[in-house]
Please model this.
Amino acid sequence: MSFKEISVEELKVNPVTMFSEGWAVLTSGNPESYNGMTVSWGAIGEIWGKASMFVFVRPQRYTNEFCEKSDYFTVSCFNGKHRKELSFFGSKSGRDYDKFKETGLAAETDGDFVYCGDAEIVFLCRKSAKTEFRPENFYDDSINDCYGAKDYHYIYVGEIVKILVKN
Ligand SMILES: Cc1cc2nc3c(=O)[nH]c(=O)nc-3n(C[C@H](O)[C@H](O)[C@H](O)COP(=O)(O)O)c2cc1C
Model:
C-alpha cells in the first residue's frame, strides 16, 4: 500500500467520527514482536507543545503489555473500511491469534514503528505519558456503566511524529 506523509497542518479529519465511526487499530511493540487491537475511542490534539494522540486501553488487553514495554505506538485509521477484519481485531486476542496473519491485514514497518498497511490514515506516535482513570475522579456517574469489571482504562499519550495518508 502506498502512503504519503503529510504535516499536522495538512490533516483534515473529523477527530470524533474518525474513531467512533471509522474505527482504528492501535498497534504497539517493535517489528520483531507487536500486537494490535481495534479502538473506537481516542482523541487527537495538543499537549506539552506537541501534536499528540490519546488512546484508551483497558488493563487486560494484550496490546497493553506492548504499550507498556514499547516507546512507540501507531494508530491506523480505517474510515469504516475493513469492518470484518477490524471486528476480528476487536474481539480476538493476540494471546491466541496472530491477528494480522488471520485477517490478511498487512503489518508494515517504518523504523521501529509497526502499522496497518491497509489503513487510510496512520499516526506514528512516540509514547510520552501514561495515566489512568480513577472512579473517584468521575463527575458523571453514568461513566461507571462502562466499568462493570472496574477495568479502568489506561490513557497513553503519544507525540505524533509522522502522519501517513493513503495515496
Ligand atoms: C469497535 C471496537 C472498539 C474498541 N475500542 C476499544 C478501546 O478503545 N479500548 C480498549 O481497551 N478496547 C477496545 N476494544 C476491545 C479490544 O479491541 C478487544 O478486547 C481486543 O480483542 C483486544 O485484543 P488484544 O487482547 O489482542 O489486545 C474495542 C473493540 C471493538 C470491536
